[in-house]
Amino acid sequence: FNHWSRKMLPAFGTPLFFLLCSGAVAGPYMLTLLCYVYHFTFKDSSTPMRKPKDAPLPEHSNNWMKQFVRPEGISAVVFYYMITGLFVTLLLGIDLVPASMHDLSPFPRLHIVLAYFVVFDSLMWIIHWVQHNFPLLYRNTHAVHHTIHSPSILVALTGYLPDTCLLIIVPLHTTLFLVPGGNLPSVAMFSSIALIHLHFIHSEFKHSWDDFFSKCGIVNTMDHHVHHLRPKRNLAHFFTIIDKTMGTYVDPASLKSLETVSHSHSH
User: CA–CA distance from 260 to each of 39, 40, 95, 99, 228 (Å)?
Assistant: First the structure.
């Protein structure tokens, strides 16, 4: 267990190597399934985001198996890191693994996790803005996701594989290279929270913490539903200050399509 205090990955074929690989593969799928469990547990008893005529399609609200196995979903990210980490790095000797993932020290560094989120959301915002303002790029990447007018947790990652690569994998990998001082637990904490948050902001119902998030400047479900109604607005996924600074923020209370949420908030 000396590996836990060293800045190095375990050797190929060792028990620790297989343990880390198993966690890297199974972890994202398990977190996604937990998001689905939350969805089905609370969707019928929580305040809906949209009026009944604007509710998600039944397939988007109920068919979790179809969404779970879509190749552009969580599988794209898992497959990418398995390819870069195992094939390219171990078999070809080209190290594409960020330095933070070589550090197996046991505890996450919270200031680094926060830095990951700031850089990741900033990079995502830039890419997201470019996608929505350059029609050719939009049509060939992000447009498929926006065929979902009224989203749900189940379709958070539904779209098109090039979109997943451009909007998630590129800024994710770049963030891990740009922010120094991280370690594997920090990456695991950051990626786990990000995965859950990206699912939850697509929810078809309001969360108990949405109002608190709004006060803290964290993107909540209502903020992101604005984006699906007005695609060139509310482009950030984690921090509303980015959109407010760049002039792309729209207050959810101003949209009639979210009137039921506005009324529940006022009560």
Answer: 19, 21, 51, 47, 17
